[in-house]
Structure formats: C-alpha cells, structure tokens
Structure to design on (1380 residues):
C-alpha cells in the first residue's frame, strides 16, 4: 500500500482527493494536514465524510514526508515549495495541485504570481502532470506540477492540432465556462449562493494566471510560440469546465482530416472521449469523473476550427488527474481508483 | 412626495427596498445609509442598480431623521433602537425590518435576542406591521415592527382558523422551507454557492428566534396561549418561503367550512390569493411580489388541517410588506409601488 | 460473477443502477432492456456513459430471465409483475424498484394504484427490501419489493421509536422535501428547468401513493395500527430527500433516552449515520451514496420528537438500496459496489 | 389607452409580455390568444398571474386585429405572417417576436427556416426592431420584426465599432451563453430540471438560425459584408444571455479610443449601461429588466477587442424590447412600462 498525505485537505480539491484516495485499492491515506482545521474530525469539515475516522493535523513538512510515500498539496500558491524541499531531501514524491511546479521558468512564475520561487533548482526535475502529454516523464518524476483546471481543458483540446503543425500563426482563443468550485471554499460574500445563482459573467479577462501555463505547454507542443487569448467565465454550476477553443487551420485540412488527428492522437487514452459529429460535450456528462470529452467542428469558409472540451474541474482538472499521475509514478494501473463513472443526473 | 431613507441599505432587504422605493410614485429616496459602504456609489454595491445616482453615506440617526419622513431600518437586531429614539424625538415615522419593535414585551425580546432593549417605552406605541391583521393600528403608528419572514407566512396561514376559535389546544406545527436570501449577504463559507446547491437541511430546530413572534401574534388572535413548534429548512433557492402548517380542528368543521373561513377573512385583501382546491402554492408564483398564496387541506379522519402558504421572503416577508405599511401609514393607495407582478420564469 | 439485467434502464434510476452495477466487483451486467430505446447505444441515452459498450435491447421477460441471475426492474408500476412470473418460473431472483411487490395485501396495491395485481400468489414470498428492517428475510427472498424513496427515509427515521413502543397513539406526521429526479425522466413541461428552479411546492397532499407503504411497515413494527400524515414537497435540487418526521412520545423519555434507542438500534448498520446533537442531516452530505443520515430532537414540553432523515432518493431511496438487497440475497459483502463516498460539493 | 393583444400568450415570452403590458400605464390588454390554452384562465397557465381576470381565447387573425391597436406575436416562426396580413389590411400595427419579419430578403428567411414566406411584399415596410439602431424607422413602421435574443446582445456589442469602420476584415466571433428560457416552454425531457442543472454545453455550433440576422444587421452597419462565427451555449440559469464577442481592430486604436466610441454612441440610450473598466457584465444585474450592459477590453498585442454584453433574453432580448418598440411606434415615453429595475438577488 502506498502511503499518501494531503496538505490543504479542507478545501474542495482536498475533499475530492480524500474521496478518491480513501477508496483507492492501493493507497492508505495516512495524513490530512490543515492549519485551519487541525484537531477537527473529518466529519466536522466535510459532512459528506461523517463516519470516517480521519483527523486533521498540523504537521511540519518533514513530519508529513516521513509518514508518506507521496504528498498531495492542495493549497494556495507558494505553499508547496516548502513541502517539495522536504520531499526532495527525503526522496519522497510530491504532487502539487497548485502552480508552484508547473513552470519550467521560475521567472514566469514570479511574474504572474508575484511571489519569489524558493526552490527553482527543483523545477528542472518537476514534470507538468498532464498524462496525455507527458506520460513518460511523469513515470520518472519526483515532483509533479499538476495542471490548472482551465489549462487541462484547453491543452487537451488543442494538442492534436498543434502537434501536427496544423494551426496558423500560433494564435488561439479559449473561451471557457467554469463552475464555481474552481474558486475554492472561501468566506467571501461574492461567492454566496444568492450572488451566483442565475449569474453568468466573465472575469480575469486578458489577465488570468492560467495564461502562461497554456502558452508554455502549447508552445512546447508546437515548437514555436503560441499566443493564447483566454476568457474565463463563471456559470452557476458547482463542477465542470467547458472550453470553447477557436484556432485557424492551415490549408489542406477538412473536418474529416482534423477529426482524424484527434482520433489517432487519443485512441489509447482511457479518459479522453471524442464525441460523435453533431454532438457536443457538456459538463454534466463528466461530473465526478476523470473524463475529458472533446468535440471538433470546422468552418471551411474561414478555416476556423472550434474544439470544445469538457472536464470536471475538481476531477480531471485537479484531484483525479493528480491520482492518475500518482498511478503512473508508482507503476499502478493508470485507472486505479479513478474509474468511477460520472454521477448523473 | 414622501421622503424616505434606508438604513442598512447594502443588504438583500435593503436592495429590495431601494428597487421598490425608487419606482414608487409617491416616494423620493433621499438617504441610503451604510457603515460598510459609505462613499460608494449604488452601482458598486448592487451591480443591478448601476446607472442610478444614489450614493451610500454614513449619517447619524438625527441627520437621517431630519432628511426623511420615514426611515426604513434593514439592519441586524439592536440597530433600529437608536434610530427609533431619534425618529420619536423628531416626530418622524420609522419602519424596522428587524425584530426590535415586534414584541409587546421587552423581556421576551431580551430573552431571545440576548440584548438589552434601550427604549422599551416605545414598544407600547409600536405596531406589528402585518396589514392583514393590524391595518387600523398601522395607520396610526409612528413605529412599525415589520414582521419576520417566517412569521408572516405562518400567521397568515393560521389567522382565519385561530380567530374563529377552530384550533384545538392552541398547538400548531409549522414546517417551513426558505430560500437562502433570508440569511443575508454574509461573508461566510457556509453560504457559498457550492455548499448550498443541491442542499436541503433543517436548522435552528426548536430554537429559532421567530418562535416568540409567531406565538405572540397567534396568542393575541386566539385569545389564549398558542404553542408553536417551528422547523425551518434551507432549500437551494434564492427567494421564497413555503410554510406547511399543521393544526388540529375542533369537531364540526368540514373542508368546505374551513375554506369558507379563509375566503371570508381574506376576501378584500389585495395581496392574499386563496388557491383552488387541488392546487398548492409555490414560491415561484410569488417571486418579486407582495403576494401571499394560501392553500387549505383537511384530513377529517385525524381532524388535521394542513395550510400551506408561500411568500417571497424579501417581498411580503420583508421589503414590500414594509412599503405596504408605509402606504397605510401615509394614507396612500395600499398597493402603490408594490403592485408589480411576480417574475416568471 | 453474478449476471444482472436491468429493465427500464433508460430512466434516472436505471442509469444509477448501471453506474453501480458496472463497477460492482461481483457483477456482470448482461442485459439492458428498454422498449423506447431498443437498438440505441448506452452513450446515446446517457451521455455520461459514453464509451461503455452496452446496447439497449427489447427482450421478453423469459429471455431476460434466461440471461441473468437477477433482474432489476426500474419501470412504472405494473411492469414488474410479468417479469416476476418469468423469474419465479425459472427460479431466478428479481428486485422490483417499483411498487408491485411492496405490499403484503394485493387489495391495498389495487386500491392505491388502480391496477389489478396479476400475481398476488407471489406477494407472500416477496420481501420489502429495507435491509435495516428485513435483512434476514431478504437473504432468503426470491422477489424483493424495493422500498419507495420517501418510505425509506420515513421508516428509518421512526423504526427505533416504533419498535420500542415509544410513540403515542400511532400517529405521525412526515413532512418530506424531495429533489426532482424522483419524478423520473419525463417529457412534461411541468418538469422543465425553468418551471422548477426557485420553486418549492407541496404536491400530493394527503393522497400520495407512498402512504400505504409507510403505514404498512410502521404498523408491522409497532404491532398496532400507525396512521401517517404525509406531505411531500418538491425542492429545486436533483437528488435527495429530507424527511422531517414528527411523533409524540410516551411519558418517561428524555432526549438522551430517545437518542439511545437510535444509537443502539443502528449501531452495526454500515449505511446509517446518527448525527451529533445540534447538527442536522442534509441532502448534499449523502449525494451519490447509500447513506441515510438521521438526527433526533425532542421538545419535552409537548413530548414531540422531531426526527430528520436524509437520503439520496436515487441511492438509498432506489438503486443502491436495490444493490444492497442483491448483495444480501447472494451472500456478498453487504457494502460491495455501494461503498462509494458522497460527491461533494 | 392603446389596445394590445398577444398571440402565443402561453409561453415564456408571452408571459413576460403580459407581465409588462398589464402594468403599462398606457396600455389595455384586450386579447390573449392561444390555441392550446383556449378557454383557460390566466392563473391556470401562469400560477404567478393567479387572480388576474384574463382568459385565453382562440380568435382568427381578423378578429384579433379588430380588437387591438397593436398585436404582439410570440409564436414559432411562420405564425406571424397570417396576422401581419390581417394587420396590414386593417391598418393596425404588429410586432413579431419571431423571425418572420426580421429579414430584408425573403430568400434568406426561407433558406434558414425552411418555410416559404407568404407575404414577402410586407418585408420592405417591416423594420428590425432594435431601437438603438433603427429608432427612426421604428417610429414609422407598421410591422416590426423584433430581434432575436442572441442578435440583440451581439449587434449592440459591435455596433459602435462596426459603424466606425474599426473592425478588420468583417470577421467576428460571438461566443454566447444563454439561460434555458430561450428554448421555450417545451414538453421535452431534454429540458428537464435534472438534465440541465450543472450542465454547460454548446449547441447549434456553426448552424444556429440567428447567424443570418447577426450578419444582415452588422453588414448594414458596416457597409460591407460581415461574417459572424457564432457559438451559443446553454448554461444552467433561467434568464440571461452573456455574449463574449471577439473582433480585430484596425491600427490606430487604443482601449481609450475604443471605449470612447461606445460612450459616444450610447450616451443618450436609456437602456445601455457601459461598464467601468475592470468590471464585466453579468446576467444577474439585468434580470427582469430592459438593460443591456456592455464592457470593452482590448489586447493591443493582437489587436483583439473583447466586448461582453449581458441582457435578459426574455427582456431586452424579447418582451421588453418589443414594448420599447411599441412605445416608439405610438409616440409614448420610450421607457414607459419597462423602467422596472432588475430583480436582485
């Protein structure tokens, strides 16, 4: 049994990690760490988990690392670095669900997150934890920078096109719609039920912190600079992201050829579902699962491709993707513990 | 034009008061007072009211009273008292949407709200602002204790029965379901969209502060002590209360006779709609309005009457009821400014 | 591996059965039967299940029975009877999620469902599939009448009190609030998103078909006639039932004694969670699971006990309870395939 | 008093028209026509309108026209034509909330709606009822083709740019998110509450019928062909559309200049609210009103402008915009009857 710990276990992503790891056949959950909730039982923090025997503790990074084979960090940016240093020193693995280890370049991180990076020497060995793109490196990694929710949906929507060199000019637009859980479990009146029901609204227009991550990965795949215009929106749902991605395709492609790129690229992926022509992905069909559903449309007159992807932002966009990475890192069946079907309705 | 001011104008009830008073044909809104938001424009506090020219200020009770004919106080308990003293001194009218002036007995207030009452001498002249019950006194009053949202729905559901002496033993059960806006505009993670969507849950079982108000008014109507067992529930809606009220009826009544009591009692009430047999009230049919919809069922085998009432907790349960009281106090058409139809769907 | 089939597999309960049975370690899902959707792939009927290889067929009861060890019938009342006859003839097991086999007395069924019962001779051997009450009989049964969603929540809320003889007069009130999925997957404008969002409303007052089932089981537990006044309400949620149950307790009981009855009665039940004093169950904490959460309050002044129970109507109220019964019938671990934790948020 | 009739009065748009016209100071609602609901009282069709005395009738176009000064048609495409012929013959006015009179070219209509146009001779005199664009012609018109909900939001988002000749190449992308009420009051399981809660999904990608309308009006404003790529999405809300519109701007423009175009163009418009820099429109801030909120962002590096507009699809996107047209046609105050503030929360 792999011993796992969760840091920042009291948020929504933390709760989803607990849900998945508790029933994972190869994992024993040994540490739940939370500064705020130290001393509380799990049922006090998550009514849904009443009856489980876990207790929240506050431990030092060294203590946590010593009790685990892998640490999941589901905390605000800046927190994972100290745990990574401890994990590195002890030769243990760490999966950060925040941004601290997503960037190859510490300067980029510092510029967007306005925080100095305390361990840039660990970045070279860290791997961006998107299995469909970096499976081999993940298998060897000690530290994973688990992708952001929006980037997961956008990179998977474009990878087959960008890798094939089909996209003109390296310019894409991603118009994303996200459920509210992406904002975390905050005491902020702006996230009140009454403020967000019946509300649809963009935010962070042109300035969202997921932009550099999207551009880094697409640029790597393309081999040349990709510029992404990214417009996230809040929609009145708890879970789910739909990203509607617009790109312009070089001459010579038909819808059939474009769909063929996706079919071929993802044919062995257990968690990517390419949707039949005429249908489109929706958030409800992936809720609670690790699936990413993808549709492809093409307007030949303007050479515009419209790729739509749907994920559960707490699933493939966070917790279950992190577990998928763990499975790969430890040589387990890749679907272990995350093969649960979406909850519908 | 009547000059009106709103204290605590930045909450949900305050916003609803502004919405109604701004379009009221006989009212000029002269003061919006808020400690937290002093200096802000209305559009910063309520996006929906962008473009209106109001500004939030922080004024003393004396200043507010001097600029208005009537002050609405939409603030937590304890706040209205100081404004009432100022209004009383200046001979102006005050409508408190909180509990400070709902009780005839200061001791009851202090016992349930754990706060000393600073002006018990004003209670005798204050009127419980439920027009269907106290219309004549409201017309004469200087100070109104506007009813709580739950009590409005429950007292209106029972008044015809209790007044007729039809209820056995003075014992009733009120099982109420409320939208979330009743909890106010709070920075508390427990009220986050993600926590309350798909959530139905009782709270304050046996201990809710609306109990003494319900019992006071029903006891007055009955002429003998009425005991109320009250179980409020949160449901995942913004606006609306449905109260399902159970009472036991003395021998001799049929459903027809019972319905007759309601039809007769409310036949001239512009805001009470008695629902046809076989149908039942719902919150959506009263949203944004001052209506109270009521149905009556009777189980002859156990002599149990089931009265169901529906109101908009921010409307008939708070703001539009306060405006209805104002209309009566100033001799205006009772429906002025609050005749808007429910928003559907 | 146990071969299982689902009749009426295209509805919400059918979908939940597929979700659970597909990942059940001891089950092979061999037949999905649907008249309406015969010939369709599973992904066409449930977008969430895209990628699975099941196909909907239309088979005769005999054919289905011949391909399965157990048939689940998730269809309107009246449908299960023909499958039961076939199962009985072939010596196979059947679990009906409808009402056809819930009643000991065919007359009661015919009176409430306005349908003749075609196989009353099978009723004597059928067992009401509430494991916490009838575990031993379930283990021996060939035919299970899986309980209704509301009755599950209400019977579990009262069983410890009724069995102990603590309830006065055999009269109880159950005020229930249900998510919309209980109404099924209907093409009816009354169930449109726009009609039900922000809507809370009672229905079926005094006449709901779950009344005889509640009374039958409580009467059996009490050993004397129990009369139930039942008021169901729709609330704007997909899944979940909260039942607020009022009963009157004989002299001599304190809250502590009453809570003791529950603690003792359910101490070994894997799916019943007794909530700590001061907290109350909510639907969100049981979503997607087989849990039933229960709280107990007591008003000594009126000897009224208020028991609140929460279940997922598609889970413990339907599909996962049916799987729990199957587990018991086949001697499997009782929690097999239904130990998944609730999805939160 | 202007006598108004509504055809197709039982749908969501019809209900909104009734809500507005009933309280309009200059209008008397004389006819509510519905084939399906003929003979029903208004309260049976709209619970929210219980207590009003209207009755649904089925009348011939000639009869309706003879009893009204203006007929509103809120019916599927194809229905308004017969009423328009009758109105034309009788010299009465007609406002069609469907598409029959939105196109200058009958061929375009027939191509997209697959229906022959029975009165193309009336198209030349019909006016596209977007007051901010066609106010003068509306004042003279006998027949109005009231704009579609999506086109309203998209055309208003682009008009200042397109009129100024600022947009490159005449190519724009509109990514829209709509509440469910836009789909109408249908008996279709796909619109059930349970199917759409928590669901976000595109539909009609590249093929939505609002495309030709958007292109016609933008082309007219630009003076040269504008091509629109339009991707509508359903989001789990009842009311509201947010359109996120991407266009490319010719050299020489800064954000300040671009915002200046909007400020100047809309400075006297009572229903357009230009949002301060840094904020963005949301659907909740316009719910129940005739407002259109607009924000403007500009990415200088790629010369991309992102305009976001928000309307209530049943308000400015349908019923209140139709009333605005009526006000203009009859020389009334343009805001009469539609100055109600948005309902919040």
């Amino acid at each position: 049994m792999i011993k796992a710990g969760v840091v920042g276990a009291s948020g929504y992503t933390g709760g989803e990690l607990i849900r998945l790891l508790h029933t994972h056949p190869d994992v024993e959950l040994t540490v739940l760490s939370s500064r705020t909730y130290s001393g509380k039982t799990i049922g006090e923090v998550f009514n849904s988990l009443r009856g489980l025997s876990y207790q929240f503790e506050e431990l030092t990074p060294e203590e946590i690392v010593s009790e685990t084979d892998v640490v999941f960090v589901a905390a605000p940016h800046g927190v994972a670095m100290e745990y990574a240093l401890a994990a590195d020193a002890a030769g243990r693995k760490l999966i950060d669900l925040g941004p601290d280890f997503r960037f190859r370049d510490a300067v980029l991180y510092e510029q967007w997150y306005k925080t100095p990076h305390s361990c840039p020497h660990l970045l070279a060995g860290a791997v961006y934890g998107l299995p469909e793109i970096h499976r081999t490196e993940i298998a060897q990694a000690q530290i994973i920078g688990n992708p952001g929710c929006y980037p997961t949906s956008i990179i998977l929507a474009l990878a087959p096109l960008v890798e094939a060199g089909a996209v003109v000019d390296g310019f894409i637009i991603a118009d994303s719609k996200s459920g509210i859980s992406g904002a975390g479990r905050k005491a902020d009146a702006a996230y009140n039920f009454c403020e967000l029901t019946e509300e649809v609204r963009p935010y962070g227009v042109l300035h969202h912190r997921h932009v550099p991550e999207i551009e880094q990965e697409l640029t790597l795949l393309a081999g040349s600079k990709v510029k992404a215009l990214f417009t996230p929106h809040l929609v009145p749902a708890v879970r789910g992201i739909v990203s509607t991605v617009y790109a312009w395709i070089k001459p010579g492609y038909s819808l059939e050829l474009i769909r063929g790129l996706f079919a071929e690229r993802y044919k062995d992926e257990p968690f990517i579902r390419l949707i039949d022509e005429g249908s489109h992905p929706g958030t409800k069909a992936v809720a609670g699962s690790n699936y990413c559903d993808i549709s492809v449309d093409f307007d030949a007159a303007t050479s515009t491709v419209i790729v739509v992807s749907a994920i559960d932002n707490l699933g493939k966009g966070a917790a279950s993707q992190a577990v998928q990475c763990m499975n790969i890192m430890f040589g387990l069946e890749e679907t272990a513990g995350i093969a649960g079907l979406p909850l519908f309705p």
